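Fold this sequence, please.
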Amino acid sequence: MSALDPWRQALRPLIPKGFLRRDQGDGLFVSDYPRYGDAEAVSARIEAAGFRVTVTEGLARVTPEKSTCEALLNAAPVCMPPVTDENLFLYSLASRTAESDASLTPETEQAVWTALKYLDAGDMPGLYRFLAPAAALAQRKHRTLPGGLGRMILRFLSELRVKS
């Protein structure tokens, strides 16, 4: 299962027509449902399900509300994957993040979305290249990335090991 699948499964039934994809921009998802009419009603259903919607130029950017995101992050079980040469640095970074009791804040939200997109794509090297400086920046600004993000990364590292 991919990192964003629980949200895809929640959103897909709310969007009668159009695509639902991982956003390449600032949102988590993007959809073209506004091009098919009744965009306000669809947006209202999506917002009632715990997501924010921004519609521009026929596209809707969909991002989870704080409580919706924290529910997914906090549902991640504590997993300790075997350490390998391939995952050593990401494992170390995720382990330290997993120990945090910090919650999602407006300042850390974009870093979490980006990390989730890398996880969803299965791009572990890209995730590390993004997360190492993002975690360092958060630390310099006396902020901490949410511990649930670290637990989610560790879970996916465990699942990768099982599939190998």
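The chain has a mean pLDDT of 88. The radius of gyration is 16 Å.
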